[in-house]
Amino acid sequence: MSTHTDIHPTPGARQKVQRLGRGTSSGRGHTSGRGNKGQNSRAGSKFQLGEQTTLLKQMPKRRGFTAVDPKRYSLISLSSLQKLADAGTTEITPEVLLSAGLADARHDGVKILANGELGATITVSAHKCSAGAKAAIEKAGGSITILATDATDAT
Questions:
Q1: Is 77 found in the same domain as 34?
Q2: How far apart are CA 32 and CA 146, in angstroms?
Q3: How far is CA 64 from CA 34, 59, 67, 128, 140, in A?
Q4: Does residue 84 share a domain with residue 22?
Q5: Residues 105-124, buried b or exposed e (16+ Cβ, 10 A)?
Q6: pLDDT band at 90, cuts 50/70/90?
Q7: More reliable by pLDDT, 151 or 146
Q8: Burial of 18 (0-12, 13-18, 19+ CB in 10 A)
Q9: pTM over 0.85, yes/no
Q10: Is 134 domain-assigned?
Q11: What is the mean pLDDT of residues 72-95?
Q12: How many domains does the chain divide into?
C-alpha cells in the first residue's frame, strides 16, 4: 500500500517563491521590484495601466452603415439574357438562370442589370431589376415580373 510520501512532483515543476523585501542582499530588497515612488509602489495599489477601450470608441466615426446580414443577388446582364434568347429560351426565370449556370444558388435572388444589348422579345421573372434594364426589355417588346424574396418584400 502506497503512502503520501511516495508521491512527488516532477523535478523542476515547483519553484521556490521569491520573498520580497528581505534586505538588499536578497536580490528583491529595498523597493522590492516596484520601482521608485508613485501609486504602483504603494501597498494596496490596484492601479492598472491601459484599460480596454469601449466598443463605441473603437467604431469609426460617421462611416456609413454596414448591414449585419445583407441580401446578396446574382447579377445578370442583358447580354446574358440575349444569349439565352438566341438559344431559344423565351421564358426566363431564376430556375432557368440557375440551370444555365448564370445564377448562384447561395444568393438570395436574381437582379437584372442593363449591361449590353437586348433585341429579343422575352418574358423575364426576377427579384430585382434596374430601371435601364426594365426599359430595355420593354423596348424590345418583352415584359418583366418582379418576384418577392420574403414576406416583407411582397408588400
A1: no
A2: 76
A3: 47, 11, 10, 24, 39
A4: no
A5: eebbbbbbbbeeebebebeb
A6: confident
A7: 146
A8: exposed
A9: no
A10: yes
A11: 92
A12: 2
**CATH code of the domain covering residue 96:** 3.100.10.10
Check if the beta carbon of residue 125 is closer than 8 Å to that of residue 93: yes
Question: Which of 11-20, 34-43, 106-115 comes out lowest in average pLDDT?
Answer: 34-43
- The rounded Cα 150 to chain-centroid distance in angstroms is 22
129 is a domain residue: yes
| Residue range(s) defining the domain that contains residue 128 | 73-146
Looking at the fold, whether 89 and 40 belong to one and the same domain comes out as no
Task: State which H helix or E strand residue 113 sits in.
Answer: strand 109-113
- CB neighbour class for 60 (10 Å; exposed up to 12, middle 13-18, buried from 19): exposed
Cα 28 from Cα 100, distance rounded (Å): 77
Q: In the predicted model, is pLDDT for residue 92 greater than 50?
A: yes
Q: Are residues 78 and 137 in the same domain?
A: yes
pLDDT band at 155 (very low <50, low <70, confident <90, very high): very low
Sorted by sequence, the CB contacts under 8 Å of residue 127 that are 6+ apart come out as 73, 94, 108, 109, 110, 111, 146, 147, 148, 149, 153
Measure the CA–CA gap between 144 and 135, rounded to whole angstroms. 10
Closest to 144 in 3D by CA, of 98, 100, 107, 110: 110
